[in-house]
């Protein structure tokens, strides 16, 4: 047989491998449905209503939650099928096991239901992203209605809860300097939860936050007013030209929390951060932990999720601005290279026990 004909023949299928993948796909479909219903359970407060509560009927659970019983009953069906909630067929009651509640409720420091919200959120722009696959371009921030809300919830666990005890101590003497009074900038601050917490804890320091999202900045300003924080300034700002518009030597500390990789011009932002650091200043960055290669990220415990969020949000919002589309999984090697190119001479990388998703960089000129 000629080589071309041989190449055109279908390969012999490995039935075991095919069957294993089929089972995996069936499991994935069920797990994806569970994630969607987990997001619903979080947003409606159903998990919180069922935690530390005795077994109850769907009617009692709905009444306790202030929700429609028919929807609650169908949701319970999905959660029982998924093994998240237990049911007693004799009594017709349902219960959330304590071991599950500790990972699904707002009272827990490790509420995984928060992260479940990312899947339906990014799924809502699937049509837009599919169009970009065909014609290029990107999907703008405005299409992601709840993104900053969900990010604020997520950062409450990864950043806010660990800020004073784990993150600030990465820079020796930083808390003492904050207590004495320094100037701090948080770039890509979103709803500025970290900045507001610092401003309350360190009233002698001055805090500035920049973000592209008007909605996020408005929310943060309202919270700052409610907390009576006079040492906070928040501005809507496009940072794509920060390399030339950043105020020179203006800040003693600059922070970015999960913000560099989705910028339109990440190198311009990094050069602007270098430009705006005062003598003796330090840049503290949290960003996604990656290897910089697809093969290297195969062992990442959240690799599939992070690449998906990157494709459906981080990369595409950058491309929508005519940007670089760096993507969430840019990785430590490229991060080091870009920090150096931006003019930084000292780059430390830290891993924190509570956060398998991110690396923490302490960067100095």
Q: What is the rounded Rg? A: 24 Å
CATH topology of the largest domain: Rossmann fold
Number of helical segments with 4 or more residues: 18
Share in helix: 40-55%
Question: Order of strands across the widest beta sheet?
Answer: 5-4-3-6-7-9-8
Supply the CATH superfamily name of the largest domain.
Vaccinia Virus protein VP39
Provide an overview of this structure.
There is one protein chain. The protein is an alpha/beta fold. The chain has two domains: 15-107, Winged helix-like DNA-binding domain superfamily/Winged helix DNA-binding domain (Arc Repressor Mutant, subunit A); 123-364, Vaccinia Virus protein VP39 (Rossmann fold), CATH 3.40.50. The chain is built from 18 helices and nine strands. The strands form two sheets. Strands 5-4-3-6-7-9-8 form a seven-stranded mixed β-sheet, sandwiched between helices. Strands 1-2 form a two-stranded antiparallel ribbon. Strand 1 (86-88) and strand 2 (93-95) form a beta hairpin. Helix 4 packs across helix 5. The protein is globular. The N and C termini lie far apart (66 Å).
Key features of this structure:
Arc Repressor Mutant, subunit A, 18 helices, Rossmann fold, alpha/beta, 2 domains, seven-stranded mixed beta sheet, 48% helix
Secondary structure elements and pairings:
Blueprint: H1 3-8, H2 15-44, H3 46-50, H4 58-65, H5 69-81, E1 86-88, E2 93-95, H6 98-101, H7 113-116, H8 118-123, H9 126-135, H10 147-158, H11 163-167, H12 174-180, E3 183-187, H13 193-201, E4 206-211, H14 214-227, E5 232-236, H15 242-245, E6 251-257, H16 266-276, E7 277-288, H17 303-320, H18 332-341, E8 346-350, E9 358-364
Parallel strand pairs: 3-4, 3-6, 4-5, 6-7
Antiparallel strand pairs: 1-2, 7-9, 8-9
Helix pairs in contact: 4-5
């Amino acid at each position: 047989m000629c080589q071309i004909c041989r190449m055109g023949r279908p390969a012999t299928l490995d039935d075991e491998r095919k069957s294993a993948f089929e089972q995996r796909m069936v499991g994935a479909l069920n797990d994806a449905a569970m994630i969607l219903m987990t997001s619903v359970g979080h947003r409606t407060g159903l998990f919180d209503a069922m935690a530390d509560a005795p077994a109850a009927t769907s009617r009692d659970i709905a009444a306790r939650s202030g929700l429609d019983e028919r929807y609650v009953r169908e949701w319970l069906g999905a959660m029982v099928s998924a093994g998240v909630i237990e049911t007693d067929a004799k009594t017709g009651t349902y219960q959330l096991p304590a071991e599950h509640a500790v990972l699904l409720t707002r009272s827990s420091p490790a509420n995984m239901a928060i992260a479940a919200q990312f899947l339906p959120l990014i799924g809502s722009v699937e049509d837009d992203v599919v169009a970009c696959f065909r014609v290029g371009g990107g999907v703008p921030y405005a299409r992601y209605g709840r993104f900053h809300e969900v990010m604020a919830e997520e950062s409450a666990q990864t950043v806010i809860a660990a800020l004073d005890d784990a993150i600030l101590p990465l820079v020796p003497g930083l808390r003492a300097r904050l207590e004495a009074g320094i100037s701090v900038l948080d770039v890509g601050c979103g709803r500025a939860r970290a900045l507001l917490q610092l401003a309350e804890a360190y009233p002698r320091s001055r805090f500035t936050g920049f973000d592209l999202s008007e909605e996020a900045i408005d929310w943060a300003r309202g919270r700052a007013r409610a907390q009576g924080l006079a040492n906070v300034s928040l501005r809507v700002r496009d940072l794509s030209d920060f390399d030339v518009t950043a105020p020179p030597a203006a800040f003693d500390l600059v922070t970015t929390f999960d913000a560099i990789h989705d910028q339109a011009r990440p190198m311009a932002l990094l050069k602007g951060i270098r430009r705006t650091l005062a003598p003796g200043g330090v840049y503290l960055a949290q960003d996604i932990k990656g290897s910089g290669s697809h093969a290297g990220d195969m062992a990442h415990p959240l690799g599939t999720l992070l690449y998906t969020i990157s494709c459906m949000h981080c990369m595409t919002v950058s491309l929508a601005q005519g940007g670089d589309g760096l993507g969430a999984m840019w990785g430590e090697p490229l991060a080091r290279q870009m920090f150096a190119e931006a003019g930084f001479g000292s780059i430390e990388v830290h891993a924190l026990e509570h956060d398998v998703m991110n690396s923490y960089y302490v960067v100095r000129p």
